[in-house]
Amino acid sequence: MQFQKMDRHRHDSGKVAAIIYEADVDTFNFFFGNKSKASEKIAKLVNAGDNDLGYQQTYVVTTGEKEILGVMVYSTGGKEDKIRQLKVLFKNLNVVDSFKFIMIEILDNIFLSDLEGDDFYFAIIAVDEDSRGKGIGSFIIEEGIKLAREKGCKRVVLDVDMENEGALRFYKRLGFKKFNQKNISLFGWEKGVHNMEYLF
């Protein structure tokens, strides 16, 4: 397995988008209806770059044959250029879809981890459905932690859905600890997360 920064010319953005979709199926289906529609929109943002799902923030796990098995999207703490990101949305998506991604961002900001300037945040860790159970998730975490060290970060942060007890146990085994939890309920849609950290 290889862990490498996404290259738009070598890696299939449609496959990357489909794997990103798997990281938050319920939210993407709530806003876009199904995998095909959601993945199409995500792929446009992956390709465009300069946004939270852009190729610059994306790493892929591949086989020797370049098949994509998993995806990691990260961010670091500190100020983001929200105006630039809005421009990317409205340039690459229609107005309705742009506002859907803005709503997802607003919801994420309500309950996801609060970041410090020297934090490394696992925004998305996802493994292709056909490749699960082969240690790829652990490999992504280990490589991501190495990348965070290289960038001089002091802490690695991620969020786990409260109902996903298996993921919570998995991250605890890898050295992450809960430091907070948040819940939100809106018009019948409910979500809660454990905020977790790995300290250097």
Summarize the structure.
With 200 residues, the chain is α+β, with helices and mostly antiparallel strands. It is built from 7 helices and 7 strands.
Report on this structure.
The chain has 200 residues and is of the alpha+beta class. The chain is 42% helix and 28% strand. It is built from seven helices and seven strands, in the order E-H-H-H-E-E-H-H-E-H-E-H-E-E. The chain has a seven-stranded mixed sheet, sandwiched between helices. Helix 1 packs across helix 3 (35-48). It is globular, with a radius of gyration of 16 Å. 30% of the residues are buried.
Let me know the average pLDDT. 92
Estimated share of beta-strand residues:
25-35%
Q: Poorly predicted ranges (pLDDT <50, ≥5 residues)? A: none
Percent in helix:
40-55%
- Output the helix-strand order: EHHHEEHHEHEHEE
Morphology call: globular
With strands numbered from the N-terminus, the spatial order across the biggest sheet is 1-2-3-4-5-7-6
C-alpha termini separation: 25 Å
Structural class, from helix and strand content?
alpha+beta
Number of strands: 7
Number of helices: 7
Radius of gyration: 16 Å
Give the biggest sheet: 7 strands, mixed
